[in-house]
Amino acid sequence: MTIATPVTADTPVNSELATPVAEKPANVKEVLSFLTANFPLCFISEGPVKPLKVGIFQDLAARLGEDAAVSKTQLRQALRVYTSSWRYLEATKEGASRVDLDGQPAELIDAQQAEHAAKLLAESKQKAAEKRKIRQQEQKALAAKTVQAERSPGAAKPVRSEQKRPNKNPKAASKSVKAPVKAVQSPVVKPAAAAVELAALAPQHTVVGAKVLVKLGSSPMPATVTEVNLPDVTVQLNSGMVIKTRQDSLFQA
């Protein structure tokens, strides 16, 4: 994929793409490289990032045009990956300013949006820790099987036995007592929160800009309607993530 040349302070940012793309990016990583190259004041590849303006997907679609090498589906996937990264969620703090494609300040992050980002970050880190724990357990199990196989009859190598020397200092021997192993406490399981009753969103209320709740997983999340093509509706979560869902999955905020 062709990467655009860096934009300097004397060059108008994003008046048009720095360099046309010869072919469509093959994956999300290449789409993100395309965005960071052509919109460097908005999308940041390394270091601290800035929260994106609400409605950034529509701005991107309008700026790139219908004949863009990057499709709308690829843009949605790239935005979902970008806004769910730990760097992005850590930057979504109350009072922080969102930015548009040209790096200009937009709306500020409110307390609800910051709380939602912190919740997503904690859940993501917990899942990563659980996966890491599972990998460690699998490695230990594999190592134990390897040792057992080496010690099995016919596979073990002969080992020279050495006669233990008598301990001339019995007092020192009495001190070498292993400390008792502390019992591992089971994690406290918190009771599940009471289910929230949701009111279905009527089709006539499903309009661009409407504040709604979209149910993802076990809990509803606040979002804003950005595109309506019934029965499909595109919404943007407060974290900046853009998703496409159905109208019957939306509820009154």
Automatic annotation (TrEMBL):
Composition skew (Low complexity), residue ranges: 169-183
Task: Extract the ranges annotated as region (Disordered).
Answer: 123-183
Q: Which GO terms describe its cellular component?
A: cytosol
GO function term, MF aspect, one: RNA strand-exchange activity
Q: Does the keyword Cytoplasm apply?
A: yes
Which SUPFAM superfamilies does the entry link to?
A: FinO-like (SSF48657)
Name it.
RNA chaperone ProQ
